# Entry
Amino acid sequence: MLYHFCYKQNDNPGKKSMYLFIPTSNYFRGAWLRIYITRN
# Structure
Protein backbone atom coordinates (compact mmCIF):
# COMPACT_ATOMS: atom_id res chain seq x y z
CA MET A 1 0.00 0.00 0.00
CA LEU A 2 1.14 3.50 -0.76
CA TYR A 3 0.77 6.39 1.62
CA HIS A 4 0.65 9.97 0.47
CA PHE A 5 1.17 12.89 2.81
CA CYS A 6 -0.13 16.39 2.18
CA TYR A 7 0.64 19.32 4.42
CA LYS A 8 -1.51 22.43 4.64
CA GLN A 9 -0.37 25.38 6.70
CA ASN A 10 -3.28 27.66 5.79
CA ASP A 11 -5.86 26.28 8.22
CA ASN A 12 -4.91 27.94 11.50
CA PRO A 13 -1.89 30.04 12.47
CA GLY A 14 -1.11 27.66 15.33
CA LYS A 15 -1.94 24.32 13.80
CA LYS A 16 -0.58 22.25 10.95
CA SER A 17 -2.96 19.92 9.18
CA MET A 18 -1.63 16.64 7.89
CA TYR A 19 -3.67 14.76 5.31
CA LEU A 20 -3.04 11.04 4.99
CA PHE A 21 -4.30 9.39 1.81
CA ILE A 22 -4.84 5.65 1.93
CA PRO A 23 -5.72 4.13 -1.46
CA THR A 24 -8.20 1.27 -1.42
CA SER A 25 -8.92 -1.33 -4.08
CA ASN A 26 -9.88 1.54 -6.35
CA TYR A 27 -7.06 4.06 -6.30
CA PHE A 28 -9.29 7.05 -6.93
CA ARG A 29 -11.63 6.11 -4.11
CA GLY A 30 -9.44 6.28 -1.06
CA ALA A 31 -9.89 7.15 2.54
CA TRP A 32 -8.68 10.47 3.80
CA LEU A 33 -7.50 10.81 7.35
CA ARG A 34 -7.02 14.28 8.71
CA ILE A 35 -4.64 14.60 11.61
CA TYR A 36 -4.22 17.85 13.45
CA ILE A 37 -0.82 18.61 14.85
CA THR A 38 -0.73 21.43 17.39
CA ARG A 39 2.56 23.22 17.79
CA ASN A 40 3.24 25.82 20.46
Observations:
- The chain has no helices and three strands.
- The beta strands are 4-12, 15-22, 31-38.
- The chain has a mean pLDDT of 50.
